[in-house]
């Protein structure tokens, strides 16, 4: 019996050691899993904005100074702000702060004078629209439309995209809109080309406008280069004549 007891002792000790090692390995593996999960959680938490923080979206929203009586510009600004707020899921408090921080000039002075009355986003929007989005009279719109011409340093595209909406606001026909747009072009030749063609849609006018602009610019550069070459040759010939005894 003594011999049997001596044989069982080492066997139990070995089993205990194996169990201890398995438990230790399991603990180590569990700790590694916990570390991985913590890293994943911290990475997911990084993009989340801190409470009360508004991202820098100056380029997206832009500023508003209220120094123009263009109701469309004012409406476009507040619509841009609301779109940005919707995409970023801002609460009304964030929208109000974003609007306040993007007001400059006369618009900022208007807000400061009424700051105590404008405590919510709804009140801000209501008073803003009453002050800045009131439509101008039809006669004033027509006056501005006729006065709008292409400036010397303004591209035909910038002029086109600014004047055509003015025509749409007055609900003019496509032919009337095209005529008024052509009347304001700086280039007489471009005006004649466009008026000689038939256009059923606004984009067709723009396509011909682009084609004419490319041709005219190419010709101007080519003939300008030729003119400079002739001028240089003429100066050289005059210089030679002066040197001839």
TrEMBL record:
Please list the residue ranges annotated as the Ty3 transposon capsid-like protein domain.
57-165
Region of interest called Disordered, as start-end residue ranges on this chain: 222-245
Q: Which InterPro entries match?
A: Ty3_capsid (IPR045358)
Pfam families assigned to the protein according to its UniProt record, in alphabetical order: Ty3_capsid
Q: List, as start-end ranges, the regions of compositional bias called Basic and acidic residues.
A: 233-245
PANTHER family annotated for this entry? CCHC-TYPE DOMAIN-CONTAINING PROTEIN (PTHR33223)
UniProt-recorded name of the protein: Ty3 transposon capsid-like protein domain-containing protein
């Amino acid at each position: 019996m003594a011999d049997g007891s001596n044989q069982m002792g080492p066997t139990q000790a070995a089993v205990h050691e194996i169990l201890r090692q398995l438990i230790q390995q399991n603990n180590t593996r569990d700790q590694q899993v916990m570390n991985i999960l913590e890293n994943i959680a911290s990475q997911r938490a990084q993009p989340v904005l801190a409470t009360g923080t508004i991202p820098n979206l100056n380029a997206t929203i832009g500023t508003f100074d209220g120094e123009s009586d263009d109701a469309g510009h004012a409406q476009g600004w507040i619509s841009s702000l609301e779109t940005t707020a919707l995409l970023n899921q801002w609460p009304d408090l964030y929208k109000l702060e974003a609007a306040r921080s993007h007001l400059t000039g006369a618009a900022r002075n208007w807000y400061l004078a009424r700051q105590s009355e404008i405590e919510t986003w709804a009140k801000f929007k209501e008073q803003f629209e009453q002050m800045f989005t009131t439509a101008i009279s039809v006669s004033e719109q027509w006056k501005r439309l006729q006065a709008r011409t292409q400036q010397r340093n303004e591209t035909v595209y910038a002029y086109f995209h600014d004047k055509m909406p003015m025509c749409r606001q007055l609900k003019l026909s496509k032919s009337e809109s095209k005529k008024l747009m052509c009347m304001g072009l700086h280039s007489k030749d471009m005006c004649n080309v466009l008026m000689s063609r038939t256009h059923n849609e606004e984009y067709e006018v723009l396509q011909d406008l682009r084609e004419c602009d490319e041709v005219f610019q190419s010709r101007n550069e080519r003939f300008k280069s030729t003119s400079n070459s002739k001028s240089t040759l003429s100066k050289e010939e005059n210089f030679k004549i002066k040197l001839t005894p």
